[in-house]
Amino acid sequence: MRIVSGIQPTSQLHIGNYLGAIKQWIPLQENNECVFFIADLHAITTPYDPKNLQNAIKETVIAYISAGLNPEKAIIFVQSQIKEHTELGWLLNTICPIGELERMTQYKDKSKKFKANINAGLLDYPVLQTADVLLYKGQAVPVGKDQEQHIELMRTLSRKFNQKFGQTFSEPASMILKEGSKIMSLTDPKKKMSKSDDPKSCIFLFDEPEVITKKILSAQTDSGKDVIYNVTKKPGISNLLTIYSLLTGKTTQQLEDEFRDKGYGDFKKSLALVVVNYLEPFRRKQKELATREVYIQEILKQGHSRALTIAQETIKEVKEKMGLV
Ligand code: ADP
Question: Which of 135, 123, 44 lies closest to 87, judged by CA?
Fold first, then answer.
C-alpha cells in the first residue's frame, strides 16, 4: 500500500505529533511504500522567520529519524523541492468548491489565532494537502484527529476528479488511532497540544529530563485527588493517563489500579520518569545526527529523487486527462 503523511517544520516536534502520527508511521514502513515529507509550503501560511526555515527543516528530518523513521525504507524529502505539489494543488483548486474550504475547523481556528494574517494559503491549505497525497496516489494517510476533515476533502476531490476526467486516483483512507490521536495541552487540557502554543503546554521530543519533569509536575490537573480516567470530569488527568498508557502499554484501568491510593503528585512523578526514559534514545540519536550534516543532506537527496519519479508520472497523467498536454 502507498502511505503518505507529513509534518510542518514550524517548531520542534512534540509528543502529540509523535503519539498521533509518527508512532504509527514506524511499523508501516515495513510492508508498505511510505512517503513522509517535510511540509514547508504549509508552514509558510502562518507567520514565520525565513532565516530560520532551513534550520527548522533540518531539525524536522533529524526528529523523523531520531523517532524511528528508516530512510532506507521510507521516502523522506522536502515538499517545496518538488514543484509538482504546487502544480497539482492549482489543478485541484479548479474542482474544489470554496464552501468546502470555508467550513474547515482548522481554517476557522487559525484565522482566529492569526487575525493579522488570514491569507489565501490558509484557506487553500487542504487543497495543497490533497495534492500532497494524490501526487503519490496515496491510499492511506496516518495522521492525528485534527486532520480528519482534511482527509474527507481528499476523498471528495479524488472522487470528483475521477468523475470529471476518468479513473485516476483511489480515495485515500484516513488512519487515525483510537488512542493518542488527540493529545491535549498540558496547560489547558480542553485544547489540543500544538506547536504554535506556549512551550509549557507541550512536551517536545528533545526536551531535557529536568524540563520534562518540570512541565509534567506543573501540568494542569482537575479538582479532587483520585487518578481516574474520565475525559469530561477529569480532562487533565485523563490526558496524562493516555500519555502514560501509550508509552508503557499498560491500560488506563491498570494505571488506575496502580495509583488507587496515591495522589496526583505521585502519579505525575512516575509519569515524568516514564516520559524521560522513553525519550532518552531519541535525545541521544538527535545529538548524534546534529553533527552529521552530509548524511542528512544525502537522505533528502535520495528521497527527493525517489519522490520526483512518482510525482512527474502523476502530473503527466493528470495534465493529459485535463486536456493540458
Ligand atoms: P501542530 O498542530 O502541532 O502544528 P502539524 O499540524 O504539523 O502539528 O501536525 C503534524 C501531525 O501531528 C499531524 O498528523 C497531526 O494530526 C498530528 N498532531 C498534531 N497535534 C497533535 C496532537 N495534539 N495529538 C495528536 N496528534 C497531533
Answer: 135
C-alpha distances (whole Å) from 231 to each of 184, 214, 222, 228, 235 are 11, 23, 11, 9, 4
Which of the residues 195, 215, 234, 268 is marked catalytic?
195
* pTM > 0.70: yes
Q: Which fold has domain 2-181+293-321?
A: Rossmann fold (3.40.50)
Domain ranges of the chain: 2-181+293-321, 206-287
253-299 confidence digits (pLDDT tens): 999 999 998 999 999 999 999 999 999 999 999 999 999 999 999 99
Q: What is the mean pLDDT of residues 97-122?
A: 94
Contacts with 201 (C-beta within 8 Å, 6 or more apart), sequence order: 185, 186, 187, 188, 191, 193, 194
Within 10 Å of residue 232's Cβ, how many Cβ atoms? Answer: 6
If one looks up domain 206-287 in CATH, what number appears?
1.10.240.10
- Ligand 1 centroid distance, CA of 172 (Å): 19
- Grid cell digits, residue 200: 509549557
Q: Which residues line ligand 1 (CB under 6 A)?
A: 7-8, 10, 16-17, 19-21, 143-144, 146-147, 181-183, 192-196
Other Cβ atoms less than 10 A from the Cβ of 226: the count is 16
Residue nearest to atom 12 of ligand 1 (CA): 17
Burial level of 115, CB count in 10 A (0-12/13-18/19+)?
exposed
3-class state of residue 136 by DSSP: coil
268 is catalytic: no
